[in-house]
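If you are new to this repository, start here. Below is one unmodified record pulled from the training split, so you can see the exact layout before writing a loader.
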Amino acid sequence: MILRSLQVNQNVNSAGDQVPAWEAIEHSQRQMMGAKECWLITQPAHAALSAEIALKLKPEIFGAMDDATIRAIALHDSGWSASDANAIQASRSTGGKKSAGSKSPGQILPFIAVDPRESLAACAASIEMAEKVSALGGFLVSEHFRNIAMANHDKAPALISKFVASEELRQKKLRPKISLPDAEIQRLVEGLRFCDLLSLYLCSGASESIEFPQKTGGKNIVLERTGNDQCSMSPFPFATDEIFGVSALRHPKLKEQSSSRFFLKVSE
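And here is the target side for that same chain:
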């Protein structure tokens, strides 16, 4: 689950100093640790937003994405569905039952704090769902999570080593089914990573200006905040200005307000 503060951040960083995209996202989620009131955004909703972003990208940035690839991106966090559903059920329960991803009644954990065993299981389930769409989709999502796992190896060395080995074997089986050259596959992987980060940034409510690790024209893509729900990006990865949005549930639910929708306008 992605957690977002109920408070609108009035201290938007528009000074031109960027932090790495993941650093801003992780910071936003660590700030929500222990929060008893917040907005809840499911991982599948975040993945669907990632696909909306992918659909709007200029094809020359990360390569052309066909319908199957967009669909795979839309499903890249589908393995979290059951866990997130349990958390929502607990949030809506008058009895305050514990749920997956919950330490205590009234408290729901952000995705970065979920036990590695549960997280890796969700990743594996997501990859399997993407693989059902296409071999290329399965490969892209597999490589996406393999890289994330390797970057977090110290959190659970034995579990993560096993996961990485399993995904490398999966990729060896999928690779002959994909006609694209390695360089084009890697471009698409970077496209998935970019869409994932931008979606997480919007969902988390992070307010910093950020720099993405992905490049275009030899330059890292940079996002500068220009307002609470506005930003500019350079080099600009879309054909026109875009407005992206995501729905959230209030935790706990109130009679006068149970949900909301958040937007980010992206301009050149």
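Two things worth knowing about this chain: The two ends are 31 Å apart (CA to CA). Confidence is low (pLDDT under 50) at residues 94-105.
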